[in-house]
């Protein structure tokens, strides 16, 4: 597997930043963020968009994602309650604006923002304004204050540019939207795949971890991820039967059973992904 390592002290990435990204703003005031201790130097900011992982070290702070642009000031303020060190790195789990909306402001304060090459391509295609993140293809490691964060690309799932952040010393991962507490959204417009998602999660489960920061929802366990994966498999099997029966997206949404899948409902995530899922499973 191709691999790159980045050391906070004396890091010389030397890569050009370019391109555009879409600003994701909303009229409603942002939901207050809940700063939670996960384990050791690892924390999480929950609420108002995608979850943010916060690794505190004596050489700087390493974030996983940065929510919407409107959350930037509060994220920085919450981080300052944990450390007076700068936010040195911000690792994007994928390109969606509720996870990358703060990229431009992070870059403007000197934070190095890093994403998978497919995530950057999705940002560029979406014409999102501001400088674009540095990229990698398969794996990148950040070393900071004796801690290690590995950003690993296992394959397609929620999009074609999802990475998992792995904290080996802490036996913890941040999955982005490869795992959420609720129904999944398969972003077919940006390379998502329900079939390959299963393979991707199988690879994730080869890592040694017991704690999971999901893309959305409460901090979870390995067992929670395993159960969610099994629920997703059940859902795919049910939709596959409807696909073989020639059902339309509307008919499939009406017919598919999800009330026995913990935390799932027939919300917009399932509705918006159904047409693509039926086509993929045919």
Describe this entry's structure for a reader.
With 282 residues, the protein is an alpha/beta fold. It has one domain: Metallo-beta-lactamase, Chain A (4-Layer Sandwich), CATH 3.60.15. Helices cover 29% and strands 23% of the residues. The strands form 2 sheets. It has a 7-stranded mixed β-sheet. A 7-stranded mixed β-sheet has the order 2-3-4-5-6-7-8. β5, α1 and β6 form a beta-alpha-beta unit. The two termini are 32 Å apart. The N terminus is likely disordered.
Features:
282 residues; Metallo-beta-lactamase, Chain A; seven-stranded mixed sheet; 8 helices; 23% strand; globular
What is the CATH class designation? Alpha Beta
How many strands, which pairing sense, and closed or not: the largest β-sheet?
7 strands, mixed
Number of domains: 1
Low-confidence stretches: 1-27
**Which descriptor suits the 3D outline?**
globular
The CATH architecture would be 4-Layer Sandwich
Measured between the Cα atoms of the first and last residue, the distance is 32 Å
**What is the strand tally?**
14
Number of helices: 8
Find the structural class using helix and strand composition: alpha/beta
Annotated CATH topology: Metallo-beta-lactamase, Chain A
Q: Give helix % range.
A: 25-40%
Strand order, main sheet: write it out: 1-9-10-11-12-13-14
Radius of gyration, in Å, reads: 18 Å
Kindly state the mean pLDDT as a whole number? 90
């Amino acid at each position: 597997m191709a691999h790159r390592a980045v050391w906070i002290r004396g890091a010389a990435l030397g890569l050009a930043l370019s391109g555009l990204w879409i600003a994701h703003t909303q009229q409603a005031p942002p939901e207050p963020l809940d700063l939670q201790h996960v384990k050791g130097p690892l924390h999480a900011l929950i609420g108002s968009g995608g979850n943010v992982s916060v690794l505190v070290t004596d050489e700087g702070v390493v974030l996983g994602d940065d929510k919407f642009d409107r959350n930037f000031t509060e994220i920085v303020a919450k981080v300052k309650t944990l450390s007076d060190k700068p936010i040195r790195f911000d690792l994007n789990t994928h390109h969606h604006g509720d996870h990358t909306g703060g990229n431009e402001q992070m870059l403007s304060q000197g934070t190095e923002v890093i994403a998978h090459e497919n995530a950057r391509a999705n940002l560029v295609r979406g014409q999102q304004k501001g400088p674009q993140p540095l990229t990698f293809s398969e794996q990148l490691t950040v070393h900071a204050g004796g801690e290690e964060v590995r950003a690993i690309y296992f394959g397609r799932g929620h999009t074609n540019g999802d990475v998992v952040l792995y904290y080996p010393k802490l036996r913890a991962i941040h999955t982005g939207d490869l795992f959420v507490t609720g129904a999944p959204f398969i972003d077919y417009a940006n390379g998502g795949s329900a079939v390959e998602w299963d393979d991707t999660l199988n690879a994730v489960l080869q890592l040694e971890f017991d704690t999971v920061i999901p893309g959305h929802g409460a901090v979870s366990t390995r067992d929670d991820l395993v159960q969610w994966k099994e629920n997703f498999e059940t859902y795919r099997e049910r939709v596959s039967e409807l696909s073989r029966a020639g059902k339309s997206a509307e008919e499939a949404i009406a017919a598919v059973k999800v009330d026995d899948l913990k935390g799932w409902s027939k919300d917009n995530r399932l509705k918006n992904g159904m047409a693509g899922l039926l086509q993929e499973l045919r």
